[in-house]
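Q: Hi! Curious about what Adenylate kinase isoenzyme 6 homolog looks like structurally. Here's the sequence.
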Amino acid sequence: MAKHGERKRPNILVTGTPGTGKTTTASSLAEASQVRHVSIGDLVRDKGLHDGWDDELECHVVNEDLVCDELEDVMEQGGNIVDYHGCDFFPERWFDLVVVLQTDNTILYDRLSKRGYTGSKLSNNIECEIFQVLLEEAKESYPQDIVLALKSDTVDDIDSNVATLTEWVRQWHPTS
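A: Let's find out. The predicted structure is below.
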């Protein structure tokens, strides 16, 4: 079993409120860094790692234990960019960097509205961003020195973030 310091490539978690650019950032970073992109939403849907459907929030109820079991071996190997809107259920040992994307509330509202978010689904996500719930969750779940908040309002922000993170991956060296 590979320990954190034995991985040849880092694991990065890209998290943030829906609509902050997680998937766009993670896929661009995976391509630029030659690492694997793991979209938890796709994984849950494709492998049935859920406990049904939540009609009010219009999403699957993720079975966190099944997700972690599914990813254990892949994460030990390293070289993964995981993208998900939550972060507190993943084992701390899995990640070398936790990136929290943040978007201005007006921009986020427009993005989510265009996706068809309405009612409580829209307001819950905007409130989540206003109160920086995911940044706080990341800081409580991981060492603060690996948590990085990045602005993700524009395409230029995303490009800049991908460039910064690609350089981070390039310079990364395992620690024991």
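A: A fun detail: The first helix runs from residue 22 to 33.
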